[in-house]
Amino acid sequence: MAKSPWSTRGSRSVATVAAYSVLVSNTHAQDTIFSGHGFATYYYDIENVKACGTDFVNQNQGYVACSPGTARSLNQIGTNYLVAMNNTELQKNRKKYCGKRVIVTVNGEKSTLPFFIGDGCERCGGGPLTGPWNPVGAPGLDFSYSALSELSTQACSAGHIELSWEIADEALFQFNTDY
Fold this sequence. Notes:
Helix content: 25-40%
Strand content: 25-35%
Structural class: alpha+beta
Number of helices: 7
Largest sheet: 7 strands, mixed
Distance between the termini: 36 Å
Number of strands: 9
Number of domains: 1
Low-confidence stretches: 1-25
CATH superfamily: RlpA-like domain
Mean pLDDT: 86
CATH class: Mainly Beta
């Protein structure tokens, strides 16, 4: 997870602090179109195809929900920053969510990683909003293993982490969401 320029020892230049301030303020400037709190898990990884005892070859070849008209796999999209959200919510309005920036907060720290919605997650729509972790159904998001590892050192050992998220009305990736 990206650290705040104020959390490290030593002096920082005015330019570094100013650049970080612009990044944070731009993150908040976008309208939030969906938000939540729950659990993050991983389901693919295009760079570390075999990680944490999992082989992601088959998952990486799967087509994403945000590209139904022009079928595109995770490998073809070519990034580990694609995120899957509640599939039921996504299918209600793919144009609203697909490609939009996802801002996640883990342990009180907002990530500056360039996450965007690209797929649907069945587990992410199940379970009570305030319930404990349940691998069959718990609200949340799905990430690549590498991205989840950037957010928490517990990605492999626990298999999931708690987080909150906002989906901003800012496109980071373009999908053809039409059939």
